[in-house]
């Protein structure tokens, strides 16, 4: 009974946050958009950005709080920062109100030139993908919950599996409202990350593409532009890449804090800092060796090395932090609460 009330309270907080977020976006669309781009518009949006950063902390659950903080406090705020200067997905082309709100709240990208469907061709359906991923995750959590003693030696593998499918589910759910309400074809959120041939390829072209685009616009491009003036165009990408990973690391650290409410220990930030260093090393090696045809790894070797690099460092830093803070136990507890909540709803309708 107590768990059902806790879940009900969480849903009420989530609904309140949704209403307030829409109200703030209405202000951004009808009032802030009329202010000339630049510093003045940024100042007019700062109260919205501040409140959207704070409100998700009213949510305590992993499955509701994590995506809300990610979509609202991180991505929506970064889009509003770009919008202040007439850049980013909220600015071009001019959106109607519904598209503006959906674009601000959810990470999706509309295909500009959708290809005509060919006979026997199947296109990605976010609703079907979400249902598939949800089934996979439910099976994984249920199996781990009931047979935990069989998996204790392979817990990191289970976390990798869960993270991969949970993100796929989360982003498929995020794309569903846009597809249903706007009737448009969307760009894929991932591009076969398991087939990456380098860290550059993984982070820049295959993994979580909408987040990569936002980070590229808010961190990489400004730093690259400044670096070009200081050190020239040949190596200007190096500080841009490193600062982009640093920003990503800090935002992920805030995500971990939201999930645990424990004092930051910075493992997540260090994971992304190290990835930034390794990507910069790749860039230097490619410019020095590959471009001059002195050395080139075959993708059958570079691909597994890429995935091993990410898996080992994630297991060493970010997943260790998650296990130490008991996120696995909280996940199972929420799973039980959600099932009890559904049973309570079913009983009350009889």
Automatic annotation (TrEMBL):
<keyword id="KW-0472">Membrane</keyword>
<dbReference type="GO" id="GO:0016020">
    <property type="term" value="C:membrane"/>
</dbReference>
<dbReference type="GO" id="GO:0006629">
    <property type="term" value="P:lipid metabolic process"/>
</dbReference>
<comment type="similarity">
    <text>Belongs to the wax synthase family.</text>
</comment>
<keyword id="KW-1133">Transmembrane helix</keyword>
<feature type="transmembrane region" description="Helical">
    <location>
        <begin position="14"/>
        <end position="32"/>
    </location>
</feature>
<feature type="transmembrane region" description="Helical">
    <location>
        <begin position="268"/>
        <end position="285"/>
    </location>
</feature>
<feature type="transmembrane region" description="Helical">
    <location>
        <begin position="297"/>
        <end position="319"/>
    </location>
</feature>
<dbReference type="InterPro" id="IPR032805">
    <property type="entry name" value="Wax_synthase_dom"/>
</dbReference>
<protein>
    <submittedName>
        <fullName>Probable long-chain-alcohol O-fatty-acyltransferase 5</fullName>
    </submittedName>
</protein>
<keyword id="KW-0443">Lipid metabolism</keyword>
<feature type="transmembrane region" description="Helical">
    <location>
        <begin position="235"/>
        <end position="256"/>
    </location>
</feature>
<keyword id="KW-0808">Transferase</keyword>
<dbReference type="Pfam" id="PF13813">
    <property type="entry name" value="MBOAT_2"/>
</dbReference>
<dbReference type="InterPro" id="IPR044851">
    <property type="entry name" value="Wax_synthase"/>
</dbReference>
<feature type="transmembrane region" description="Helical">
    <location>
        <begin position="63"/>
        <end position="85"/>
    </location>
</feature>
<keyword id="KW-0812">Transmembrane</keyword>
<keyword id="KW-0012">Acyltransferase</keyword>
<feature type="domain" description="Wax synthase">
    <location>
        <begin position="187"/>
        <end position="273"/>
    </location>
</feature>
<dbReference type="GO" id="GO:0008374">
    <property type="term" value="F:O-acyltransferase activity"/>
</dbReference>
<dbReference type="InterPro" id="IPR017088">
    <property type="entry name" value="Wax_synthase_Magnoliopsida"/>
</dbReference>
């Amino acid at each position: 009974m107590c768990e059902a009330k806790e879940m009900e309270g969480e849903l009420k907080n989530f609904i309140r946050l949704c209403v307030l977020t829409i109200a703030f976006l209405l202000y951004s669309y009808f009032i802030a958009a009329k202010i000339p781009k630049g510093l003045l518009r940024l100042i007019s949006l700062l109260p919205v950005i501040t409140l959207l950063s704070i409100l998700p902390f009213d949510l305590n659950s992993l499955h509701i709080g994590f995506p809300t903080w990610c979509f609202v406090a991180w991505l929506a705020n970064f889009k509003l920062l770009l919008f202040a200067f007439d850049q980013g997905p909220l600015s071009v082309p001019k959106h109607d109100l519904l598209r503006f709100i959906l674009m601000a709240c959810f990470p999706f990208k509309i295909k500009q030139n959708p290809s005509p469907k060919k006979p026997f061709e199947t296109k990605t359906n976010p609703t079907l993908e979400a249902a598939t991923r949800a089934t996979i995750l439910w099976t994984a959590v249920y199996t781990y919950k009931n047979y935990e003693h069989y998996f204790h030696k392979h817990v990191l593998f289970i976390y990798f599996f869960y993270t991969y499918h949970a993100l796929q589910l989360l982003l498929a759910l995020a794309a569903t409202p846009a597809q249903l309400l706007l009737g448009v074809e969307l760009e894929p959120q991932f591009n076969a990350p398991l087939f990456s041939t380098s860290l550059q390829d993984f982070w820049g072209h295959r993994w979580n593409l909408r987040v990569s685009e936002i980070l590229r616009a808010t961190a990489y491009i400004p730093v690259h532009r400044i670096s070009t003036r200081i050190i020239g165009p040949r190596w200007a990408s190096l500080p841009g890449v490193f600062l982009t990973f640093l920003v990503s690391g800090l935002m992920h650290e805030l995500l971990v804090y939201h999930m645990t409410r424990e004092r930051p220990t910075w493992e997540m930030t260090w994971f992304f800092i190290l990835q930034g260093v390794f990507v910069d090393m790749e860039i230097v090696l490619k410019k020095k060796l590959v471009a001059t045809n002195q050395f080139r790894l075959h993708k059958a070797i570079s691909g597994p090395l890429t995935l091993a690099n990410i898996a080992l460092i994630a297991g060493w830093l970010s997943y260790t932090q998650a296990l130490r803070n008991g996120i696995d136990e909280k996940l199972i507890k929420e799973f039980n609460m959600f099932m009890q909540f559904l049973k309570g709803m079913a009983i009350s309708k009889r």
